[in-house]
Design brief:
The relative contact order is 0.06. Among the domains are: 196 residues, 3-Layer(aba) Sandwich (Rossmann fold), CATH 3.40.50; 202 residues, Rossmann fold (3-Layer(aba) Sandwich), CATH 3.40.50; 99 residues, Arc Repressor Mutant, subunit A (Orthogonal Bundle), CATH 1.10.10; 238 residues, no CATH class. The chain starts with 21 loop residues before the first helix and ends with a helix. The chain is of the alpha/beta class. Helix 3 packs antiparallel against helix 9, helix 5 runs parallel beside helix 8 and helix 15 crosses helix 49. A hairpin with a 2-residue loop joins strand 1 and strand 2. An 8-stranded mixed β-sheet has the order 12-11-10-19-16-13-15-14. The radius of gyration is 37 Å and the shape is globular. It is built from 50 helices and 23 strands. It comes from Rhinolophus ferrumequinum. Belongs to the helicase family. SKI2 subfamily. It is found in: Chromosome; Nucleus. It catalyses: Couples ATP hydrolysis with the unwinding of duplex DNA by translocating in the 3'-5' direction; ATP + H2O = ADP + phosphate + H(+).
């Protein structure tokens, strides 16, 4: 309740209540009921009069007229509430016996009830609701007097009238002991009023008190008039009083939201068909979708999917629709149901860090408004196990790897049941390499350990759905809906064919390209790309997918050479501002290709760009400043950037022929909902590829297959290690039982031709034991205690147990690739012998990812130059690692080297030089020039190093001998994560704020998280260059969310410190409290 506001609040009735009519309540009493009473009884009857329900009443505008100032209360007009009081009093005054005695029977009942019902306030989320206690027997012993709930006397009265009745009862309850009553009023009522009402209301009620003392000396007629006068004066004073800050409109909305949440919760728990106002959610959620995303109405398929019986019964669900069909909205509504109605945590697994950050930004504003946390688990961010919250629930948005770590930590701490829902976007990725194996492990563990966690999977490209259904025990829903019609074309030479499944060979002739090409242009643009793009740009957007990164840059430059100068004028000012912002985020540097292409509205987009550069280019494209992007296939799987026309430069990704899934994802970007009426895709091909392309467009999507066996060190071996480490399954029988329920178990007949699943299980366990990650347990047989070194082919093997070693536990807790865990252990052990701490180089080497080192090809001259610039201490560190200056010098001069040296160590140290230079200079451009590497690659290296550093930290936490690394790696991980000056780190904690934006905010005076959380988005737009309103709101929402998370975590810590321990001696704890 807002400070200074009234502490008495009326309950807003949303649902219709049964109320007795005025005629019934005010009916003349029978002879048996005519006991001597005074006007307090009449007050009781007046209080029981019916009122209009207020749930649907519109907020009343300010009005100075007394006739209309009470909104939905009765007016003072004829036949009004007070007129009925007057008629009733006249009727009772005609009975002489009613004036002789004053038993205060009715008033006593009235006031005793009002005290019993005195403001039992509960909180639902952050909304307050008034509860009245059950009607009890009269305190005076009058058990024959009862009032129906619907006519509850003070149930819907304004606070001023409740206090007035109490005042009047206290002043007239006992004329024989007036001084005692005055003493009671002076000691109790004013204290209550002072505590519960604003100052102006206190003065009004003191005036009422004085007036009521005069009433006691008046005649019966005056006493009757005084009731009307007092009610009128009190209601008028109450209406004219200064309005509390907490407005009645806001109170109505919040109480309505509170009741809707309760209704939705009851609806879900009772499995009723009545879904409530917005798919079991408060109507406020619908309003927020209109406000934040402009979504006013759901598509028909979305409504159908949300109302499926399987969804209502909380069965696992897989649903598949074409790209841009609106799949994510369905998942979001289901997540909000879980968070708000069932009060369970939710995990959303997304494929890439950029998509995680985009989703965090989009949902943080919902979390702020609806009272739940949105937590990021990507890169090095994320706490294991997550903070346990008692009040608000959390939505964890994670990459595939971080989602796996989160599930492991919840299983380990026995909290997996707190996870009510897991949503997997791009479910088809379960069939893609090591990442697919990790996703499969995550889902298999959830299915095995929690029977209450629902799994929802979605994808645009699914084929063998039956296998996935069997694995996830899921229902399936599919629809071919697209908000914009998609037309597919093929271009062979100058002819364009439309893809038509009804045609004999799958295509029909559409048209010839009509564009005048000079001989020079024909040589420069043999595929007629200029002709295709100029049909749509600059008024519409276009994406050109290219096979390689270099091809993206070349195509962008080539198109620009043949565009007319008219293209320069299109949104010229905004394009100049974009160039200025690109320079600002890169310390004055700008890619020469972008410098030439952006003025014409064209840019390239691939992994060679930094995150800051990509973000600015994506924003410019989304707003129409840029009209064409030349890009690689990764854009199709990343952030959503639709276009009027999508052109595929060739049916290849790098040197591999295009897959059906990739093709569908790329062309799925064609057509922008709400902007375009149709979308077009054009695949350019040579005559030699025609047959393969015709097969491509007609064949079904590729099937998903388990990669647990193919990716053994990251797959099945890592799975067994974590199963035993988490004690999910510790003997061969349990492990085999678990494996039969995996995606691999479902597909074993297809995938396992040479060896059975049981044989692979036995072999993997033997490998882990030999590697020192698992240890065999001794078992008791009839012949005594035997150490089993061989797993026998008998029934005994299913009872044979394992336990995890310290190294094994460290490996699975740190999610270290098992191919490198023993190498990491040796490197850390060797580092203890002589860790050089005069610089960060030695420590950086220990956290440089092994897998990136194996792909590195050093430039030996640059290597030698950088080696010579090292300080003596740094050269000493290099020698301890095992790399000498002599070796690098010989490689640089091209001399033959007989001595055998570990190439991975050499490459890893080279990458350590790159990272070390970057941390010192914090400028990717200068480091890119020094090492002749793409700046995007350097940034990817930095992100991978930050993630691996976090993994090494968790690895060291499990091994006491590496205690010295713990504090060192915490700081190093933070440096690698942000790689900026220390003062910018608090701003970069906010999702979506990268280095360039952090510098802008810092220079504008926003120097902390608190500053951002309290910022006004409208002021930010004016202060920060090239910041849209949507981005400003997302930054402020994300900052608020982060601030709330930190505050809540501190509050939880305080409460935990002050709470009496459950194992405190002499304290008996009930099972409920333990839970």
């Amino acid at each position: 309740m807002d400070e200074g506001g009234s502490r008495i609040r009326r309950r807003v009735c949303v649902h219709k209540r049964n109320r007795p009519s005025l005629g019934i309540i005010l009916a003349a009493p029978t002879a048996a009921e005519l006991m001597p009473r005074d006007e307090e009884e009449e007050e009781e009857m007046v209080a029981g009069s019916p009122r209009r329900k207020t749930g649907g009443v519109q907020p009343v505008e300010n009005n100075d007229s007394e006739e209309d100032m009470f909104g939905d209360y009765d007016s003072f007009a004829e036949n009004s509430f007070l007129a009925q009081v007057d008629d009733l009093e006249q009727k009772y005054m005609q009975l002489p016996e009613n004036r002789k005695h004053d038993t205060d029977f009715a008033t006593e009942n009235l006031c005793s009830e009002s005290r019993q019902q005195k403001l039992s306030i509960t909180t639902v989320g952050s909304f307050t609701e008034l509860k009245t206690d059950e009607h009890t027997k009269n305190q005076s012993g009058h058990e024959d007097v009862s009032i129906e709930r619907g006519a509850d006397l003070l149930y819907e009265f304004p606070s001023s009238q409740v206090l007035y009745f109490e005042n009047l009862q206290n002043s007239s309850n006992d004329f024989g002991d007036q001084s005692a009553k005055e003493r009671d009023w002076n000691t109790s009522s004013p204290k209550m009023v002072n505590e519960e009402l604003p100052h102006n209301s206190i003065e009004q009620f003191q005036q009422i008190d004085q007036a009521s003392s005069q009433v006691r000396t008046s005649s019966d007629v005056n006493r009757r008039k005084s009731l009307k006068d007092h009610l009128k004066r009190t209601m008028t004073g109450n209406a004219k009083a200064q309005t509390p800050i907490f407005s009645r409109t806001k109170q109505l909305k919040e109480t309505l939201l509170s009741e809707e949440i309760n209704v939705a919760k009851e609806t879900i728990e009772s499995s009723s068909d009545d879904l409530g106002p917005f798919y079991s959610l408060p109507s406020k959620v619908r309003d927020l979708y209109v406000q934040f995303k402009g979504i006013e109405k759901l598509y028909e398929w979305q409504h159908t999917c949300l109302t499926l019986n399987s969804v209502q019964e909380r069965k696992n669900l897989i649903y598949s629709l074409p790209t841009s069909g609106g799949k994510t909205l369905v998942a979001e509504i289901l997540m909000l149901q879980e968070l708000l109605c069932r009060h369970k945590d939710v995990l959303m697994i997304l494929p890439y860090v950029a998509i995680v950050q985009e989703k965090i930004s989009g949902l943080s504003s919902f979390g702020i408004e609806l009272g739940f946390f949105v937590e990021e688990y990507a890169g090095s961010k994320g706490k294991f196990p997550p903070i346990k919250r008692r009040e608000k629930k959390s939505l964890y948005i994670a990459t595939i790897e971080k989602g796996h770590g989160l599930v492991n930590s919840l299983i380990e701490t026995g909290r997996i049941s707190s996870l009510g829902l897991v949503v997997v976007d791009e479910l088809h990725m379960i069939g893609e390499g090591s990442r697919g194996a990790v996703l499969e492990m995550t889902l298999a563990k959830i299915l095995y350990t929690s029977k209450t966690t629902q799994i929802i999977g979605m994808s645009a490209t699914l084929n063998n759905v039956e296998d996935l259904q069997k694995f996830l025990h899921a229902e399936y829903y599919t629809n071919q809906f697209r908000p914009v019609e998609l037309k597919e074309y093929l271009k062979i030479n100058d002819a364009i064919y439309e893809v038509d499944s009804k045609a004999e060979n799958g295509i029909t002739f559409s048209r010839l390209l009509n564009y005048k090409y000079s001989d020079t242009l024909k040589k420069m643009d043999p595929d007629r790309l200029v002709a295709l793009v100029t049909e749509v740009i600059p008024n519409y957007s276009c994406l050109v997918f290219c096979p390689t990164k270099k091809n993206c840059e070349n195509v962008a430059e080539m198109i620009c050479k043949f565009l007319s100068k008219e293209y320069l004028k299109h949104r010229e000012k905004e394009k100049q501002e974009l160039i200025k912002n690109l320079k600002n985020i890169n310390s004055g540097n700008l890619c020469p290709i972008l410098k030439r292409t952006i003025p014409l509205g064209i840019a390239y987009h691939h992994s060679g760009l930094t995150s800051d550069e990509k973000k600015l280019l994506e924003e410019a494209y989304s707003t129409g400043v840029l009209c064409l992007l030349t890009c690689t296939s990764t854009l199709a799987a990343g952030v959503n950037l639709p276009a009027r026309r999508v052109i595929l430069r060739a049916p290849y990704v790098a040197k591999e022929f295009l897959k059906r899934n990739q093709y569908k994802q790329m062309i799925g970007r064609a057509g922008r909902a709400g902007i375009d009426s149709t979308g077009e895709s054009i695949l350019i091909l040579q005559e030699k590829d025609k047959q393969q392309v015709l097969e491509l467009i007609s064949r079904p999507l590729e099937s998903c297959y388990s990669h647990l066996v193919q990716e053994s060190s990251k797959g099945i071996q890592a799975l067994f290690l974590s199963l035993i480490g988490l004690k999910i399954a510790t003997n061969l029988g349990d492990i085999y039982h678990f494996m039969s329920g995996t995606f691999l178990g479902v597909q074993q007949k297809i995938l396992l031709k040479e060896k059975s699943l049981q044989e692979i299980t036995v072999e993997s366990l033997r490998y882990l034991t030999e590697k020192g990650l698992l240890q065999k347990d001794t078992i008791l047989t009839e012949n005594g205690l035997i150490q089993k070194d061989v797993i026998y082919k008998s029934e005994e093997e299913f009872q044979y147990s394992f336990h995890i070693t310290k190294l094994g536990k460290a490996s699975f807790k740190g999610t270290i690739d098992l191919a490198y865990c023993d190498i990491l252990y040796k490197d850390l052990k060797k580092g203890l012998e002589g860790l050089v701490l005069e610089s960060l180089l030695h420590l950086i080497y220990l956290t440089t990812p092994y897998d990136m080192a194996s792909q590195c090809d050093p430039d030996w001259m640059i290597y030698f130059r950088q080696f010579n610039q090292l300080s003596p201490a740094e050269q000493n560190a290099a020698n301890l690692i095992g790399v000498s200056e002599n070796y690098i010098g010989k490689k640089a001069s091209g001399q033959a080297i007989k001595k055998k040296v570990d190439k991975d160590i050499i490459n890893r140290l080279y990458l350590s030089f790159v990272l070390y230079t970057l941390l010192k200079e914090t400028n990717i451009w200068s480091v890119s020039e020094k090492f002749n590497m793409p700046r995007g690659y350097i940034q990817n290296l930095l992100t991978a190093a930050a993630t691996f550093s976090s993994c090494v930290l968790h690895f060291c936490e499990e091994l006491e001998e590496f205690w010295v690394y713990k504090a060192l790696l915490v700081e190093l991980t933070k440096k690698l994560t942000y790689c900026v000056k220390a003062e910018l780190i608090p701003l970069m904690e906010v999702t979506g704020v990268l280095e360039g934006r952090a510098k802008q905010l810092y220079n504008a005076g926003y120097k902390s998280l608190t500053h951002l959380a309290n910022a006004n988005p409208e002021v930010l737009i004016k202060t920060i260059d090239h910041l849209s309103r949507r981005q400003a709101k997302q930054i402020v929402s994300s900052a608020k969310m982060l601030l709330h998370e930190k505050a809540d975590a501190l509050q939880e810590e305080v409460e935990e410190l002050l709470r009496l321990p459950s194992d405190f001696p002499g304290i008996v704890v009930s099972p409920m409290e333990k839970a």
